[in-house]
Structure formats: structure tokens, C-alpha cells
Amino acid sequence: MKRTPLIAGNWKMYKTGPEAVKTAQTLAGLCSDVQNVDIMIAPTNLSLPLVSRAVEDTNITTGAQNIYSESQGAFTGEVSAEMVRAAGAEYVIIGHSERRQYFGETDESVCKKIRAALRAGLKPVLCIGESLEERESEKTFLVLDKQVSDGLKGFVLDELDTLVLAYEPVWAIGTGKTADVNQVDEVHQHLRSLLKRLFSDKTAEQTRILYGGSVKPENVTELMGIEDVDGALVGGASLDADIFINIINF
Ligand code: 13P
Fold first, then answer.
1. What is the atom index within ligand 1 of the atom nearest the CA of 97?
2. How many CA atoms lie within 13 A of 70 on its CB side?
3. 73 C-alpha vs ligand 1 centroid, how far in Å?
4. Mean of the pLDDT values across residues 65-70?
5. Pocket of ligand 1 (CB under 6 A)
6. Is residue 177 over pLDDT 90?
7. Which domains are assigned to the chain?
8. Is the pLDDT of residue 1 over 80?
9. In a 3-state reduction of DSSP, which class is residue 42?
């Protein structure tokens, strides 16, 4: 099965609404000829409806960076999957390491949010990754296996048709350090066989597994050349359209 690569920009807590729209419009102009690559940008929730509207008739889609698992209710400060979908998002990033690290996200809350995303028709981008300490103590696979199996606990095969997995080693995020080709290759192969073991051949074959962590124009070609790398989740280098386009054109 041929998997369409997905190049996604996680804009984190950067850009006001007007700034986000401007970057999105510039990017739309630069990538109008891009084919056979799915492009997604995830601005803040405040910019999401504005950016979604700005890219409506382009080949760019949008995503949210987080959702709450309930569809509505007395949950001050939260935003639901349905609201994000209504704002124009096609994807939602779930379980990013910054959310796990600073906002108490757990595999259990991740699992509920994936269920919520699917309920609302959003494509979940499940983020997993080990810390430096975990890698150095050779716990990488143990950590990743737990994040995947607990994050996807209780799902049946067909539900996961739109799932995207993003491997983001915590030590490579925003540090300028990229995992080397062998490390990425090993993990991505492992994750695909894990999906096969937990779900089915079909799920394993169709699930796009992205790499994230200091992806830039200088290293994207090498990373995208790895067989089981189906795209990139890009932080810093996605904020500038002139740089991000060089990643999209890997
Ligand atoms: P950087 O590309 O800035 O390392 O961030 C990666 C990331 O966290 C994407 O979600």
C-alpha cells in the first residue's frame, strides 16, 4: 500500500491571528504546485478558524494542537473535538511531549482524546517519544510500546483508519539534535510491527508514521528516505513559510 506523505507544522504557542494568517497565505502561494504530499499546519486554537478559512481553497489542511475529550460541558478553558472540527480542522495532534511534560497529559487522557477526535471526524496524530534518560537506560522500546498500547487501548481495527503516529524523541525536540538515520529507522520499523501485532496488517500498512524533532531543510531528505518514515512533524522550521516549503519539497 502506498502511503501519501504528510508534512505537518506544529506552530505551538507562536503567532497572533493576523501573523498566522499571513504565514499560511504565504505558504499556500509557495506550495500551490505541490502534489502527492499532504500538508497540514496546526496554529493555536485562537488562530485555527482564521487560518482554516485562509487556506480553504488551497492544498493546505489545518489541525489543532490539543482537544479535551468531552464534547461540551462545564470545563472552563477547554475546547472540544467537535469545536475544532467546526473551526475547519482536519487533524488534531494528541499527546505531544510538551503536553505530557507541562500539562499532565497521560496515556489514559490521550486515549480518551483519540476517541473524541474520531467521534468528531478528526484525524488524530498520536505523538510518542522517549526522553534522553529513557534512551540512555535502553528503555526506548518499552516506553514507546506503552504509549502506543495504552494510548490506543480498547480500539477496534476499523476505527483507526485515519490514525497518524508521530515519533518525536523528546531529546530531539527544539534542541537542534536529530535522531540519526539508524535510530529513526529502527524505531519506525519497530512501531510498524507493533501496530501489526496490536491491530492488523492493514492498520500497520496504512498508518502514516511521522518523525519529529529538529526536522529542517538540511536533514529532511535523508529522513524521508527511510522506508518507514511517512512524513514529518515540524516545530520551529515550520514557522517561516520560506523555510517550511523546503521541507515540504523534500
Ligand atoms: P522542533 O522541530 O522545533 O524540534 O519541534 C518538533 C515538535 O515538537 C513538533 O511537534
1. 8
2. 7
3. 32
4. 98
5. 10, 96, 168, 173-174, 212-215, 233-237
6. no
7. 6-248 (3.20.20.70)
8. no
9. strand
